[in-house]
Specification:
The protein is built from no helices and eleven strands. The chain is mainly beta and about 120 residues long. Strands 2, 4, 5, 6, 9, 10 and 11 form a seven-stranded mixed β-sheet that branches. The chain starts with a strand and ends with a strand.
Length: about 120
């Protein structure tokens, strides 16, 4: 089993930055594709970013391209989401997820097997 714990969320003004971390315990993440999703009130969960097992391949939602960067450090069993130029519409609970069956990034939440509890990101205007 894999347990995922997100951290790094908080309140930030528009234009600011945050770095989210997702720390894993249990099985290593080294062979798993990883993703970040977010869920805002009144909206459905949406894909944010994904990364392949080795960190070489990444994929981003159009809404965050050029602003967010996903990365991973398999030695630390941790995945990161660097968020720059934050906008109020980025406000959401952010979740990390692990796909044990695939080594490359995917955008469908149903592909992921393990989910963290989420961390709140609030961007004020």
């Amino acid at each position: 089993q894999v347990q995922l714990v997100e951290s790094g969320g908080g309140l930030v003004q528009a234009g600011g930055s945050l770095r989210l971390s997702c720390a894993a315990s249990g099985r290593t993440l080294i062979s798993y594709a990883m993703g970040w999703f977010r869920h805002a009130p009144g909206k459905e969960r949406e894909f944010v970013a994904a990364i392949s097992y080795n960190g070489v391949n990444t994929y981003y939602a159009d809404s965050v391209k050029g602003r967010f960067t996903i990365s991973r450090d398999n030695a630390k069993n941790t995945v990161y989401l660097q968020m720059n130029s934050l906008k109020p519409e980025d406000t959401a609970v952010y979740y990390c997820a692990a796909d044990r069956h695939n080594s490359y990034a995917g955008s469908y939440g149903s592909d992921y097997d393990y989910w963290g509890q989420g961390t709140q990101v609030t961007v004020s205007s």
